[in-house]
Amino acid sequence: MKDIYDYIHEYFNNQERFSFPYDRKELKELTNSNGLYVLFEKGETYNDFDRIVRIGSHDGNDRLIKRLGNHFNSKLHRGSVFRKHIGRCFLNIDKDSYLEHWNRPFKSRVEKKIHGKFVDLEYEKKYEEKVTNHIHKNLSFAVIPNVFEKINRDRIEEGLISSLNQSDKKISSDTWLGNLHPDQRIRNAKIWNIEYLKHKPLSLDEFKELIENK
To answer: What is the C-alpha separation between 86 and 103, in angstroms, rounded?
Structure first.
């Protein structure tokens, strides 16, 4: 019997798909730089669909394209929660003790003073490269365009994430990289999200309203 988990996958599998290198201008025209993104990962399936592995949004206005750039085009994981998650997996696979320092903030003068003796930016480059290669080779996305109000973006984001996490149908392949994440929330949720996992899922009426307004 179909439920919200099925409808979400069916709908987004039928939307235009983007992968690296994508056209920033095209995305900007499509979304007006506001909305959400829905990530897919090569090798991950649900029934006849590509499986959704992450839902993401942006905080400030007009920042969707920049947010996607933080994930796909940046070589600095501290500007992308998603890149941080991928990196943690590779560090965990290598049993690299640097894992405990990977997430240390290192932007402001105060942060650099506090964490400078732990953070090795040169050492991090090899993992940044692994993260970038994985994302470029394996990740694609669809968008939910023109969601201008933050309160609406937040509700869609939390509703989709909660719907995916709380479904009895959630599944991953045995080789999904997230299965090697040190955080059990990622391993259990089968998606690259840790926020909103236990929030209110989208109702069918909310989902119908979402897709009819696009």
So the answer is: 12
Please tell me the total count of domains within the chain: 1
At residue 1, the pLDDT reads: 85
Domain of residue 177, residue span: 4-212
pTM of the predicted model over 0.85: yes
The reported pLDDT for the residue numbered 64 is 98
Q: What is the pLDDT of residues 34-45, one digit of tens each?
A: 999 999 999 999
Find where tokens 């019997």 sit.
1
Helices (H), 63-198: 64-72, 81-93, 109-115, 121-138, 150-165, 184-189
- Angle between helix 121-138 and helix 64-72 axes, rounded to 10 deg: 110
Q: How many CA atoms lie within 13 A of 22 on its CB side?
A: 27
Task: Supply the angle between the helices 81-93 and 121-138 in degrees, to the nearest 10.
Answer: 100
What is the rounded CA–CA span in Å between residue 26 and residue 87? 29
CA–CA distance, 34 with 150 (Å, rounded to integer): 9
Predicted confidence (pLDDT) per residue in 183-200, tens digit: 999 999 999 999 999 999
How far apart CA 142 and CA 78 sit, in angstroms, is 24
* Inter-residue contact 160 to 148 (CB < 8 Å): no
